[in-house]
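TEACHING EXERCISE
Course module: macromolecular assemblies
Task: Read the component lines below, then compare them to the predicted structure of the full complex.
Student: A.B.
Group: 4
Components provided:
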Amino acid sequence: MAQMTMIQAITDAMRTELKKDENVLVFGEDVGKNGGVFRATEGLQDEFGEDRVFDTPLAESGIGGLTIGLATQGFRPVPEIQFFGFVYEVIDSISGQMARMRYRSGGRWNMPVTVRAPFGGGVHTPELHADSLEGLMAQQPGLKVVIPSTPYEAKGLLISAIRDNDPVIFLEHMKLYRSFREEVPEEEYTVEIGKADVKREGKDVTLVSYGAMVHSCLKAAEELEKDGISAEVIDLRTVSPIDTDTILESVKKTNRAIVVQEAQKQAGVAANVVSEIQERAILHLEAPVLRVTAPDTVYAFSDAEEVWLPNHKDIIEKVNAVMNF
Amino acid sequence: MKHVLESVESLFETFQILNEDGELVNKDDMPDLSDDELKELMRRMVYTRILDQRSIALNRQGRLGFYAPTAGQEASQLGSQFALEKDDFLLPGYRDVPQLIWQGLPLYQAFLFSKGHFHGNQMPEDLQALSPQIIIGAQYVQTAGVALGMKKCGAKTVAITYTGDGGTSQGDFYEGINFAGAFKAPAIFVVQNNGFAISVPRELQTNAKTLAQKAVAAGIEGIQVDGMDVLAVYAATKHARERAIAGEGPTLIETLTYRYGPHTMSGDDPTRYRSEELDNEWAKKDPLVRFRKFLEGKKLWSEDEENKVIEEAKEDIKKAIKEAEKYPKQKVTDLIGNMFEVLPSNLQEQMEEYKEKESK
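Instructor-supplied answer key:
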């Protein structure tokens, strides 16, 4: 097994699938010769040729339309949107078209598409580069939305996404790209889409999160342990659909839950998780289910990210609130 | 059946006034600029080159944030801006900070924009401009609206916008020039074709031989200009402005230029996609070298004069970066306060929460 960063694991997943299935195509802005602005597609054009891994003209809506057309011709497109903030340019192709294709054609056409994109804050990008827009995608029926938090899972989930016969939005948190390495098998394997993972076991409170905030939850859990509070950390890994079974099993044990997301508070994934918990387990709860989120402003200008983004201290504060409820 | 592509494309020749050696090769189109104005153009280009060098250094020291280098594009940026009047409206892309500065944005605010502070986006009241657009091409459609608004108000002003060669692939580009054409709005659309959209060469963006010819489909005027020739860029923009004011509609100006540096200072490595030979080829066309030769030939410019500008620029930059660094840090309550005219209840509540947090 090799030690890989998350971005290396992502490249490895694409390499694995390009090798395995000749219909897999990887394309987008700067993904060819340049290997992507984050080097996610590094070496893939050299290895698989310009027919399989290629640069497109600069137009996200163009990439979206091209993807749909290629999918009708038997290909399995893996387009990259350079930064997920640019999704507004292609939201008709994704939400208005891909997501509805199987439904509106009565199953005649399907979209075996994986839209990959970096997102997430804390790396000092300009506007519209760091926004957490997964809630926007999760609201759209017909899409699966996957967000890995570790290199191992990134590879397994991306392979699952590429093999999925329906559209998957695969969001890669920029802060996690190179933040740590772990053992990642060189051979192919999959991690199931739609399944959450218990990242740390605990008995007093359940922290539900995804993406980079999983690591903030783990940090909070470590500190809480010193105060004698045992926190269980659940990584959703897929934010649409939500794995309610794993969450409920945990909440029925801990009787308390906090949902943590980097995105703003209003109408997001966390709100959905809270609803699922209270609809199905209200009699198991010792305290209200609270949320830790960013405030309801447009994403912070980069110089204010540190004070705007939620962190492990915010999580600890909310945990103390539910413990003392 | 008649094929027209070749004959249409052949009509788009590169407009030039000074050649690479600074010789006047097109007397007929030589703009009517006074000696002082010619010197001012040179002064601005030298100043902006120094600003670029210092900005790159400040970025490397961690004192600036997002920065898109401008060296090589001075003639395209400043020649076009020099043709504007004070009340014209500017819709820049993210590399077009120099035009904003020469149109009236204080330098310390340009630095705050780079640092990621909203005050860098707060244009002074007397500067008619939006802050640099991050989404490629979005400013093009908005320009049609600004220009149509001017027309409806009977204003004798124009809207000018900038994108790059990559930007011409966006749907917004086509919609922008088409809308402006349909409304005969007083707009100037500049495409600074520097050959690469990050790493992707111009040839992969489109099968069209020139970007200027895209004007034809929108039914507007288009011209390809030597973007390293500041007089050519100025003359083309001035002419476009006069036509726009006269109610003759928008113009698309493609300037052939080059960015010497990386796409931005955020990790782009041009050696992955550009050859040294190509870099050297473009260095020979340098807009400053060319214009300096022209002015020296007219005894309008000297080394002393150039050094004076360099010192002035360095001094201004030193002051401005200090001022930017002294500017109050953004608080979450500032960001909340900027969201709506009247805060809705969820934000009122969050405002109180963050006020309390910030007071600790």
